[in-house]
Amino acid sequence: MLDLLDWRRTVAELYASVRALPPGQGHAVWRAGRDALFRESTQTPLLPGDRRSETGLPVAPYDPSWRVVVPLEAAPPERKLLAGGVSMDRIGLLSTPWGTLDAWWLTDYSGGLFVPVRDASGGITSYGGGRYLLDTAKGADLGSGSQGVVVDLNFLYHPSCAYNPAWACPLAPPGNVLQIDVPVGEQLPGPDS
Q: Where are the domains of the chain?
């Protein structure tokens, strides 16, 4: 359990560092930090022998055109029940240039803002079930302020179930599907990986 606590603490510290830096520099810190966690932590979801523990996670180069700050808009309430009996409530909408995303609040699992995203790259260059953008219960928080919530798709990352079938992960519901290909963020390994 202490290893899991250390993993979560490290993720929270990593995102605090990201928020304190200009976005491109923060992205480089995020990539290096995630690679170190996946390589060194006993809590890594990578299976033994997975080359990504040596090569690092494949992540597209930072592209500032995939970053916006948008207000959290009102939305009709909705509740979803996730695997394991965890529920989440829709707390609003994030209207981005690429489409609208539902913003969820995890009600049972330590609370927190949760924004999963699935796009047209799912199953081709990214995990078919989608990627996570924000999961503040686990420290994945790009920030917010008076202008709104930071939506930076460069920071999309695969859930643990993308690496290891022993994990069960909440996937992106219909309100979190973008109809476009998002070529940034974490990617599936290439054929030579």
A: 2-176
